[in-house]
Amino acid sequence: MARQVAVVGIGADGWDGLGGAARAAVSGATVVLGAPRQLALLPGLDVERVELPSPLLPALGDVVARHRDRGLCVLASGDPMFYGIGVTLARLLGAESLVVHTHPSSVSLAAARLGWALQEATVVSLVARPASRLVPELAAGRRLLVLSEGAHTPVAVAQVLRDNGFGESRLTVLAQLGGPDEATTIGYAHDWDGVADPLNVVAVECRGGAGRSRVPGLPDDAFETDGQLTKQEMRALTVSALAPRPGELLWDVGGGTGSIGIEWMRAHPDCRAIAFERDGERAARIARNAATLGVPGLVVRGAAPAGFADTGERPAAVFVGGGVTAPGMLEQCWSALRPGGRMVVNAVTIESEAAVIAWNAEHPGTLRKLQVYRGGGLGGFTAWRPQLPVTQWTGDKDTGDKDTGDKDTGEKESAR
Which of 208, 216, 174 is nearest to 188 (CA)? Predict the structure, then answer.
């Protein structure tokens, strides 16, 4: 049986901040693997020091395999299991292969300095992520603890706050937490322009703005569009039918403006989406909208169904808003959907409606005819102006019948 790997969390206080068991794990190892900054915190121990590879993930498995049987200790920054290398190693080797020695995380230390209830603050990591990732988290009175990419992260955070109406927010940058050079800088987003120590956490007290709801149905003017946009009310109904759950992957086929995929991802930070769009200008517009509305991780690929290849994972949900009449499109979307997944198809034209009705004959699901009216001026009065009606099909890819809610008729749906 392979030897267990010791994973030791170490802070800016270095060797002096380690407990007895953590010190024994480091000094008892033959090889210590870590970032240069972490290795420099160790005293003159009789161990071989090996720097973590860069990029990390492609090479980490080989490095660990090379040294594991010699007695390996891996250093982590702070708590190894909080956005740390301990999580990666547990996935790679299995939890039973590790002995983890924890250390206070940077956010725990930050909450202690600020007097914040840690369970009431929202932690957002901007390590290898754009600062726009903050946007969905912004709301008046909210407290955020931001894990920084480096020295320029506080400036990027302040810019996002200003761009979204939160310029009055108070920022506290806590650097070198727990170490002899710990320092705190306090200011406001509207005039923040300083570069911080690279090892920092940004605490944000949101002020001055209202933010946007995570509930689907953003205003239409929140999106840059050329007109290919699922309108607000229909979008809310469509995302509700798709029923996003944390961690699930959506395919948005015929992305247009990207609104369905964006609203899906905003529903929960762990929701993921791929938008398939054949038009290059629209694909670029989808990416801009995703960044502006705080879900820069939305993936944009080319035309469906050719773009389905090599996606790496079957989707939990598929929305078809474009290409409904393309031969084989619905069949290929349904085939790609994982068991237990949901598919929603919206049809606006007579031809696409006919395709949906024919599809329902082969794959019985739930059909709905939806139309929205908006009040608008007519002379000195107000009149109802109809939006285009939408025929919507929804189905679950499972083996059982599903109650449609039509309990008075006893009707059931089953999509197989």
Answer: 208
The verdict on pTM exceeding 0.85 is: yes
Q: What is the maximal distance between C-alpha atoms in the chain?
A: 88
The residue type at 196? A
Euclidean distance between CA atoms 132 and 291, whole angstroms: 6
How far apart, in whole angstroms, are the C-alpha atoms of residue 89 and residue 81? Answer: 10
User: Which of 197-201, 206-210, 288-292: highest mean pLDDT?
Assistant: 288-292
Length of the chain: 416
306, 357, 351, 310: which is closest to 333 by C-alpha? 306
With tokens 């015929």, the residue in question is 254
Using pLDDT thresholds of 50, 70 and 90, give the confidence band for residue 195. confident
Q: If pLDDT is split at 50, 70 and 90, which confidence band does 293 have?
A: very high
Cβ atoms of 36 and 54 within 8 Å: the answer is: no
Residues forming beta bridges with residue 374, ordered by sequence position: 385
pLDDT in tens, 56-71: 989 999 999 999 999 9
Cis (ω within 30 of 0) for the bond into 219? no
